[in-house]
Specification:
With about 325 residues, the chain is of the alpha/beta class. The protein is about 35% helix and about 15% strand.
Length: about 325
């Protein structure tokens, strides 16, 4: 007998844009949406998830080994994010739980943040604004507060995927920057559109005037930007990270900035998050930090909500997930 959608219980773990929730309810799913701005604790998340068939979660939720072992009954996990390093994908796959996600939804929004941070660092926007508040805007000083320009300089992209492509387009169009990148695989589209050149990690460090990080968080990329990496960068270079805070070693970054090993840094992600208020990065002249708002536009968050809901709808209608982290689970179910 065909299963009715009102028998399928979906837990939405945070207050997300209503578009996705309305899509699910319109299809007849039984949806429970967490009503508060604050998150559930790990124990609350497990307890609530045990009452549902599906969870629609966010990247800040801990969907790790303990969670999946306790909630192995779940028929699907749909993530309101492009990343999924918060999920034990290997265990979920082993247990036959497919995982949906929302790639592409935040390409432009996150690239805007990376591009904006690059300019803000180069011209010391945040530090100078705080100077106004301290009453330091007085008379003209021709040699003070000097920044830098980007025309014809070299942008190095670590992880040239969708968001990296959007960043490359901005930098090539605005400043005619030379684009180099470090990837596991060549990006022929970037090479054709932006004359991008694939280089080794060491070459990326040595040649870039700006390094912009857009890779996934993995065992291979964890703290890859450490004291050894920073030591190979130009003393005039800027480090931008809008991907995951764990990709750089924060202590080593602080030391590199204090020692003028590199010139500046712009971060939308830190480790840990939220950043501690006594972190010296917050007071540095050539550093700009944002509270992980890469996807924080109306358009991006609505699209993330839509994609997360659509993954669930298509799974139950057609045993198909448009954007699936582990599609081998679906193939196994069909065979």
């Amino acid at each position: 007998m065909e299963r009715k959608f009102n028998e399928i219980k979906v837990l939405v773990t945070r207050k997300i844009p209503v578009l996705g929730v309305e899509m699910l309810r319109k299809e007849g799913f039984s949806v429970t949406a967490w009503p508060h701005e604050w998150p559930m604790t790990d124990d609350e998340l497990i307890t609530e998830s045990k009452k549902h068939n599906v969870i629609l979660c966010v990247s800040a939720d801990n969907i790790g080994t303990n969670f999946i072992n306790n909630c192995s009954h779940l028929e699907m996990i749909s993530q309101f994010a492009v990343g999924y390093d918060n999920i034990d994908v290997s265990l979920a796959t082993k247990l036959g739980i497919p995982i949906g996600y929302a790639p592409g939804a935040m390409n432009e929004a996150t690239a805007d943040i990376a591009f904006g941070l690059m300019i803000a660092v180069a011209r010391k926007f945040f530090y100078m604004h705080k100077g106004i508040l301290r009453g330091e805007w007085t008379y003209f000083k021709p040699n003070a507060n000097l920044g830098m320009e980007f025309n014809n300089k070299t942008l190095g992209i670590f992880g040239l995927g969708r968001i990296g492509m959007a960043m490359a387009r901005r930098c090539k169009g605005a400043y005619n920057m030379n684009i180099i990148y470090c990837n596991r695989k060549p990006n022929s589209e970037a090479e054709k559109l932006y004359d991008a050149k694939q280089v080794s990690f060491d070459e990326l460090l040595q040649q870039s005037d700006v390094i912009s990080v857009h890779s996934i968080m993995s065992k291979e990329t964890k703290e890859i930007f450490d004291k050894h990496a920073f030591s190979k960068m130009k003393p005039t270079s800027i480090f931008i990270n809008t991907a995951r805070g764990g990709i750089h070693n924060e202590k080593d970054l602080i030391d590199a900035l204090n020692n003028s090993t590199i010139w500046g840094a712009g971060l939308d992600v830190t480790n840990p998050e939220p950043i501690k208020l006594d972190n010296p990065l917050l007071e540095m002249e050539n550093v700009c930090i944002l509270p992980h708002i890469g996807s924080a536009t109306i358009e991006a968050r609505n699209e993330m909500s839509r994609m997360a809901a659509e993954n669930i709808i298509q799974f139950y209608k057609n045993n198909f997930i448009p954007h699936c982290v582990n599609p081998e689970v679906l193939k196994s179910a069909r065979s």
